[in-house]
Structures are given as structure tokens and as C-alpha cells.
């Protein structure tokens, strides 16, 4: 049976007026925001497209960043506000690129669908009334299902734009939100709108996907209570955490012993991802330190194959965690089992003890999941092909210029070409913007000479 | 009175509310009522609530944390076993 949203998509309206921009940036995470701001500051017109109802990507979901332990949302929120208020940036959230083709002139033509929020964007004040009266609770994706959100909701308190959205596939069309909205912003008759956009250049900043931990069956995610992913742990540690403290999702108990399994879904040929995700060692060490800040009496154990502390200050950060009492066990976890009273049993090989097979018990087990490509965008290119590398990330064919793709005028920013930490993502996004600006200048000179 | 756009959409597309959603809505309302009732006399931990209303502890946690987010309940104290007790917010 088709969903209600798919029925509504069939009612999409074409908008006849064409839009033109110097650059279209696809994806409004930290890379897309950085690239857009840099281009806009240079005077270029930018259309920033985000498929989710808010910009910010994954960074605002994090607790803190490593190795400085700066607040992640304190860094990303001002950028989100800057993007929303920049005169040269047009921001389209809750929008998807349907097709991209090369124009006969220099440039690209995109078909972009703005999905209906069922809320009048110009009227909504973000007051939460619709969310408060909505009778339907669904797992909140941004909290990785640790608690519920309503079918009518604002994604989070500092969302940009702070406009409600109605999850129509989970809506019972009871009309409570519509009756209670103080500014009459709810409109269930909104239709998707399809725009034609011309752009001289494109920056792909679609980020990454997280490894789905349930695919590593022996680790028990989804079947053994109190086995969580590292992103769930990020949320538990964040100031905007879904719980009132760092607690077990099964029974709300403060965990006294927490284990981490590194390389869950990375450096692992059995799940089809043989490469290192580059950030898991350091975010796990960061989380371990934050746990000891929140729960000073807790025992934290990290099971690792090797620690890759390659960046500036990373080795010192690792040493600091050891000095704080975090226990590092050199060995691969083979199996996870359900223990007594909600505990989790971990069976592992202790390499530093001559490969001895040992068992440990933890109140909470965190799977440090790897990063996977998110390059679905390549499917919308029509008549032209955007190349991927052997692991499914965007290919940057020129090793001396890692932001260029195989298509002229199409650049890659952030994790679209491979896993990166936040500073590297921002550096690469700035580089993509600089390359894009140089390309636009060249294109404009050629156009003037004609 | 003007017809709601929610009703108009239902009529226009001949939409019937899926049984799944109707069931979820009913179950959630029942669960919340039971949880709130269980802590109305005194604050209780999640396992205590679970025991009293015979609801799986994971389900109580999920509902308590959602009620906490929407400002309906609040934690008051922590037990020696590491559980918080929750009460209805006044």
C-alpha cells in the first residue's frame, strides 16, 4: 500500500518561473554551510538545498568536539544562523534534487522538489502549540529513537528554520494542530512544488551515513537491551540529551560500567567496509572522558584493534583519557550476550595477555559505529555520470586537487569523498568553495568575451 | 464554521486512517495514563512503575523520557541503586 506522502507527491505542481544561481550546494551540514558561506561572502549567489526540515547535518547532534571538548552546537548554531540570514544565500530545506543535467550552455539544470511541511512557512512562529496538542508519538530520529517526538513537530529547539513540520505518514489528520495553531499556519492542502534551477556550478556536500549496527548481529544491537550506538551515546551525553541524565535506555539506571567496541562496521571486510572511519577512536575517547565528567565513579573500558590518534593533539587526548582512568583493552570483541539485570556480557580476545579469551560484564555497551558513503545523489545525474571510488565515496580523480570530481564545475566538500573529522571537513569545504569561485570567475570571463 | 484542511484532505484523497496509527494512538494514551496514575501518590523509579502497572520496563522508560521532554514529569531524587524517582510536575 502506498503511503499518504507518496499520494501527496503525485499532486506535485511545476513552478514555471526558472531560478538561476552561480552555485548550488547540495547538503546543509557543516561542509555545505561552510562552502555556501564562503561563496556567498565572495559575492556569488548560492542556493543551499537540504533534504531534512532543518539545516545543521550531524554536527549539532554531537555533545562536544575532540580534542578540544568545545561545545558542538555552540560552533554549528552561529553558522546555521549566518546561512539563514546571508543575503546571497537562498535556503531550501525539506527539498530534494530530483534530476541534474548538463546545460547546452555552460552549467547545469536541476529539478528540485520542495516538499510540503503542511505549515505556512511565513506564518509559523515556532511556538510548539501543534506539537503539544498532537496525539501521536513516533520515535525521534534526531535522538536515534531514544524517546518520542510528535507527528507535528519542530525538529529541535535551535532548528533553522524554526518552523514546524507534519510527518504526514504518521498523522491521523485529526485536525487538533490546525484548530489550536494561534496563527492559522497549518494547511494540509499544501502540495509539493517542483522548481527548475539553472546553476553554473554544483558543490556536493551530502556527508555520510552511519553503519547500521544491527548488521553486526554478534554485537546484539536491537536484540540485547543496553547495547547502544555511539550516536545514541552522543545524544545521552549532549546538553540537549533525551533523558534527564546519562542513563541506560532499558530501565533508566545510571550505568556504573560502560564498554566501547571500536571498529563496529569499519575496517571490517565481513560487512563490506574495509576502510578506517578515521573518527571512531577519537570520538570514543572523547565520550569516555565526558562520561567520567558526568559519572565520576563509572568504569569505562575501550576494546580496540589499534588506536589511530593521528591528528594535532590527538595522542595527548588519548594519554589524557588513560590518565583519567579509562581502561584500554587491546583485543577484538567476538560476541556479546545478555547478562543479569540488564547487564551486557562481552567475550573478547585479550591480545596483550597472549590472546587469552576473557569475559567482562558492563551495564551499558556502546558500539562505535563507522562512517559509510552517502552518495545517492549520483543517481540523479542524467546523461552524465558522477564517478565513485571503489568504496562508494565520490571519486576525486586528481590527487593534487581532492575537491574536484570527474565533472567540470562539480565539486565535492566534506565527507562526500571519504570519512573526515570536523576540522578536515571544514578545510575541505573552504577549499571546494575556493575552487568553485575560481571556476565561476573563469566561466564569467569566457561569457563576457563572447 | 469553515471546514478544516485536514478534513478536506481526507475527503479529497479518500483517506482512511491506518489501523496501525489508531492502535498506536490508543495504546500511547493508555500507557501515559497508567504511568501518570502510578506516580501520582509518590515519586517512583522506572522499575517500580513497571512492576506496579505490569508494563515492560523499556516501554516505561521510553514513555517517561517522552513525558519528561514534554514537561509532564520530572526527576526528584536518585536511589542508592542508581535509579531516579519521577513525579508528576506541579
- Parts with pLDDT < 50 across at least 5 consecutive residues of chain A: none
CATH level 1 class label of the largest domain in chain A = Alpha Beta
Q: What Rg of chain A do the Cα atoms give? A: 23 Å
Q: The CATH topology of the largest domain in chain A is what? A: FAD/NAD(P)-binding domain
Which range best describes the helical content of chain A: under 10%, 10-25%, 25-40%, 40-55%, 55-70% or over 70%? 10-25%
Task: State the strand order across the main sheet of chain B.
Answer: 1-2
Secondary structure: number of strands of chain A: 22
- The arrangement of helices and strands of chain B along the chain is HHHHEE
Tell me, briefly, the overall form of chain B.
elongated
The CATH architecture assignment of the largest domain in chain A turns out to be 3-Layer(bba) Sandwich
Describe the sheet with the most strands of chain B: 2 strands, antiparallel
Looking at this structure, what is the CATH superfamily of the largest domain in chain A? Answer: FAD/NAD(P)-binding domain
Commentary on this structure:
Chain A is α/β, with parallel strands linked by helices. Chain A is 23% helix and 25% strand. Chain A has 9 helices and 22 strands. In chain A, strands 1, 2, 3, 4, 5, 6, 11 and 22 form an 8-stranded mixed sheet that branches. A 5-stranded parallel sheet of chain A has the order 13-20-14-15-16. A 3-stranded antiparallel sheet of chain A has the order 17-18-19, with no helix packed on it. In chain A, strand 2 (19-26), helix 2 and strand 3 form a beta-alpha-beta unit. In chain B, a hairpin with a 5-residue loop joins strand 1 (73-78) and strand 2. By secondary structure, chain B is of the alpha+beta class. The model of chain B has no long low-confidence stretch (mean pLDDT 93). Chain B has a domain at 43-90: Arc Repressor Mutant, subunit A (Orthogonal Bundle), CATH 1.10.10.10. In chain B, helix 2 packs across helix 4 (57-69) and helix 3 (46-53) crosses helix 4. The termini of chain B are far apart. Chains A and B meet through helix 1 of A and helix 1, helix 2, helix 3, helix 4 and strand 1 of B.
Amino acid at each position: 500500500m502506498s503511503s499518504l506522502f507518496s499520494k501527496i507527491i503525485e499532486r506535485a505542481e511545476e513552478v514555471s518561473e526558472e531560478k538561476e544561481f552561480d552555485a548550488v550546494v547540495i547538503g546543509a551540514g557543516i561542509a555545505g554551510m561552510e562552502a555556501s558561506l564562503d561563496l556567498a561572502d565572495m559575492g556569488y549567489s548560492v542556493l543551499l538545498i537540504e533534504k531534512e526540515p532543518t539545516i545543521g547535518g550531524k554536527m549539532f547532534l554531537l555533545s562536544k568536539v575532540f580534542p578540544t571538548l568545545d561545545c558542538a552546537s555552540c560552533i554549528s548554531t552561529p553558522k546555521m544562523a549566518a546561512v539563514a540570514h546571508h543575503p546571497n544565500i537562498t535556503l531550501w530545506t525539506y527539498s530534494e534534487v530530483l534530476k541534474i543535467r548538463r546545460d547546452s550552455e555552460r552549467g547545469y539544470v536541476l529539478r528540485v522538489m520542495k516538499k510540503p511541511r503542511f505549515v505556512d512557512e511565513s506564518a509559523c512562529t515556532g511556538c510548539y502549540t501543534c506539537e503539544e496538542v498532537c496525539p501521536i508519538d513516533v520515535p525521534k530520529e534526531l535522538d536515534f529513537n531514544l524517546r518520542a517526538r510528535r507527528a507535528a513537530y519542530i525538529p529541535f529547539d535551535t532548528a533553522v528554520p524554526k518552523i514546524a513540520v507534519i510527518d504526514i505518514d504518521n498523522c491521523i489528520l485529526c485536525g487538533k494542530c490546525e484548530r489550536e495553531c494561534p496563527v492559522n499556519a497549518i494547511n494540509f492542502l499544501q502540495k509539493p512544488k517542483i522548481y527548475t534551477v539553472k546553476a553554473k556550478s554544483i558543490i556536493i556536500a551530502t556527508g555520510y551515513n552511519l553503519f547500521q549496527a544491527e548488521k553486526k548481529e554478534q554485537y546484539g544491537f536491537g536484540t540485547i537491551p543496553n547495547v547502544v550506538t555511539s550516536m545514541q551515546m552522543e545524544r545521552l551525553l549532549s546538553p540537549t540529551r533525551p533523558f534527564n541524565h546519562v542513563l541506560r535506555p532499558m530501565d533508566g539506571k545510571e550505568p556504573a560500567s560502560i564498554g566501547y567496541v571500536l571498529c563496529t562496521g569499519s575496517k571490517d571486510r565481513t560487512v563490506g567496509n574495509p576502510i578506517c572511519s578515521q573518527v571512531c577512536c577519537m570520538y570514543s575517547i572523547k565520550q569516555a572522558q565526558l562520561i567520567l565528567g558526568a559519572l565520576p565513579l563509572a568504569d569505562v573500558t575501550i576494546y580496540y584493534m589499534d588506536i589511530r590518534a593521528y591528528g594535532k593533539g590527538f595522542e595527548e587526548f588519548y594519554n589524557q583519557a588513560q590518565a583519567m582512568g579509562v581502561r584500554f583493552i587491546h583485543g577484538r570483541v567476538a560476541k556479546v550476550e545478555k547478562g543479569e539485570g540488564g547487564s551486557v556480557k562481552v567475550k573478547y580476545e585479550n591480545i596483550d595477555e597472549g590472546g587469552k579469551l576473557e569475559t567482562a560484564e558492563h551495564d551499558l555497551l556502546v558500539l562505535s559505529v563507522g562512517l559509510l558513503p552517502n552518495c545517492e545523489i549520483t543517481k540523479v545525474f542524467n546523461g552524465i555520470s558522477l564517478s565513485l571510488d571503489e568504496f562508494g565515496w565520490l571519486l576525486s580523480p586528481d590527487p593534487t586537487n581532492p575537491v574536484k570530481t570527474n565533472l567540470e564545475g562539480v565539486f565535492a566538500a566534506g565527507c562526500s569523498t571519504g570519512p573526515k573529522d570536523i576540522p578536515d571537513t571544514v578545510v575541505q569545504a573552504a577549499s571546494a568553495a575556493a575552487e568553485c569561485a575560481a571556476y565561476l570567475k573563469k566561466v564569467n570571463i569566457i561569457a563576457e568575451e563572447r | 464554521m469553515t471546514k478544516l484542511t485536514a478534513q478536506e484532505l481526507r475527503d479529497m484523497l479518500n483517506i482512511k486512517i491506518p489501523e496501525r496509527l489508531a492502535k498506536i494512538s490508543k495504546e500511547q494514551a493508555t500507557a501515559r495514563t497508567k504511568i501518570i496514575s502510578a506516580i501520582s501518590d509518590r515519586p517512583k523509579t522506572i522499575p517500580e512503575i513497571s512492576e506496579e502497572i505490569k508494563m515492560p520496563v523499556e516501554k516505561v522508560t521510553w514513555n517517561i523520557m517522552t513525558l519528561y521532554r514534554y514537561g509532564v514529569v520530572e526527576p526528584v531524587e536518585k536511589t542508592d541503586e542508581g535509579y531516579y524517582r519521577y513525579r508528576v510536575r506541579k
